[in-house]
Amino acid sequence: MTTTGEEHTAAGTGPWWWVRWRSAVLDAGLALASAAECGGEGVRFAHDAGLPVPIGVVFGVIAGSVLLVRRKWPIAVVLVSIAITPAQMGFLMGLVGLYTLAASELPRRITAALATMSFAGMLIVTFVRTHQGVMSGDVTMGDWFVPFASITTAIGMTAPPVLLGLYMGARRRLMESLRERADSLERELQLLAERAEERAEWARNEERTRIAREMHDVVAHRVSLMVVHAAALQAIARKDPEKAVKNAALVGDMGRQALTELREMLGVLRSGNGPDARVSAVSSSSSSSGVSVSSVSAVASVPLAAVGAAAAVAASRAADGSGSRAGVGAGPGAGAGGVVEGPCLSELDELVGQSAAAGMVVALSVEGDVRAYAREIEQTAYRVVQEALTNVHKHAAGAKTYVRLAHRVSEIAMQVENECPPEVGAGSSVRLPSGGNGLLGMKERVAALGGVFVSGPTDAGGFRVSAVIPA
């Protein structure tokens, strides 16, 4: 990450007030050069002032060494350079001091005032020294030379360092501003990236929930009916082989429907790469026709836990698949196209018929004018009825069930209510597993479309599932 000027300064590793060691070495070198210059000029100052030479040299060395603190106290350095200007020493200190003062963060009025004082001092000293040279005959130029030399020297000693310092100070402030802006933009980008990751994680969780809900609706209903038919198949296989063959064909038909719906969902998940090879291979096994009584008898002889799978395989080899709504031939096209239409309300009769074929006493009633709805609405209504019937198979086997569908002006309502289940002997009951997510999935589906979902037991000992979805 980029750092701002303040952070850059705070992160310095130099001694005392220096940010970096190289800055300290540079200032020490400049101070040493300034001390040497002022010490050498102190000899002439001592002769002119009538002082001992060592005193003039020490004075010059001490004055020139002040340049060491130019970054900490630039005003003091400039004032010292102005103060020793009459002694004609400290030229290097004056140049570096004015540059440092102009490049610092001090108010510009202070820089202007000190630069003016330095210009005036240099102008006066140069004028006096040049005039003395002209009067003594050391300089043979005309009268114009004195003011020209004074002004030129004063400008040359003050203007360049001040202008260069102002430029470097503005450049440094610009770079710090750019660093701060880059740092701010990087923080914003990180924040946006974190928010995007949170949204992506939320979307992934929502998609996983949706896929789990779809898989639950498909597998729970179809497999529950298959288990019920397999149990009936086991009971009648030896007594009524023809009825057993019919039940086996129903199991195979339901299995193919479940496989086709699973293949459609997997095809979408594979992003248009076609149906899943394993699911396609399993469903493509429904190619031969005819089934023998011996195969059904063999199914009946195995334990109940293996009846469902065995009956599905036997029936898938027996039926031709033409009677299924989503047959084998229709599956790949749907999967490869990448669009899953899903079930619709026109298939409720078939859904209720499947439950009736499994032994449930179920009645379907439709109120209002039948019309088409959006695909999401029809699919949700179908899934609610499907899951409610699945729960009846699981928890209230043998109970009479009523399925009601009402087409209203601005909404569609559905209700699945079962009566109190009859007492069934333990030996004849079929225990179906339950994950406890059916009602939650129905409620989530309906709520996602802005509808209302209510479920609970009835006073008569049954159970009722009701949902209203805006149309």
Features:
single chain, 471 residues, alpha+beta, Heat Shock Protein 90, five-stranded mixed β-sheet, rod-shaped
Low-confidence stretches: 1-9, 272-340, 425-429
Distance between the termini: 52 Å
Strand order of the largest sheet: 1-2-3-5-4
Kindly estimate the percentage of residues that lie in beta strands according to DSSP: 5-15%
Envelope shape: rod-shaped
> N-to-C SSE series?
HHHHHHHHHHHHHEHEEHEE
- The number of domains is 3
What proportion of the residues is helical, as a percent range? 55-70%
Gyration radius, to the nearest Å?
48 Å
Largest sheet: 5 strands, mixed
Helical/strand content category: alpha+beta
Number of strands: 5
Q: Mean of residue pLDDT?
A: 77
Oligomer: single chain
- Contiguous helical run count: 15
Q: How would you explain this protein's 3D organization?
A:
It is built from 15 helices and five strands. It is of the alpha+beta class and 471 residues long. The protein folds into three domains: 5-195, no CATH class; 237-342; 343-471, Histidine kinase-like ATPase, C-terminal domain (Heat Shock Protein 90, 2-Layer Sandwich), CATH 3.30.565.10. It has a five-stranded mixed β-sheet, covered by helices on one side. Helix 7 packs across helix 14 (375-395), helix 13 (348-357) packs parallel to helix 14 and helix 14 runs antiparallel to helix 15 (438-448). Residues 1-9, 272-340 and 425-429 have low confidence and may be disordered.
